[in-house]
Amino acid sequence: AQSESDPGYYTQQIYANGLRCWNGPERSVKLNLECGIENEIISVVEPEKCEYHLKMKTPAVCPDNPFID
């Protein structure tokens, strides 16, 4: 998916129903993977208790990657 505000190729993975936080919700992760030359963590934030959003760059999601069918 591409847009003018996010010009790179990307994919999103969501991991839900993790271990319950102490006195809180179950842990969850939203992982955005963008096309990049090498593996790189761009950002990690916790917008809500035990909810994590990660942004990474990796050649694994690039459309011209020879390892992707």
From TrEMBL:
Any GO CC annotation of this UniProt entry: glucosidase II complex
Pfam family, one: PRKCSH_1
GO biological process: N-glycan processing
Protein's organism: Dentiscutata erythropus
Domain MRH residues, every copy: 1-64
SUPFAM superfamilies cross-referenced by the UniProt entry: Mannose 6-phosphate receptor domain (SSF50911)
Lineage: Eukaryota, Fungi, Fungi incertae sedis, Mucoromycota, Glomeromycotina
Cited InterPro entries: Gtb1-like (IPR039794), Man6P_isomerase_rcpt-bd_dom_sf (IPR009011), MRH_dom (IPR044865), PRKCSH (IPR036607)
Protein name: 14368_t:CDS:1
Domain of life: Eukaryota
Keywords, alphabetical: Disulfide bond, Signal
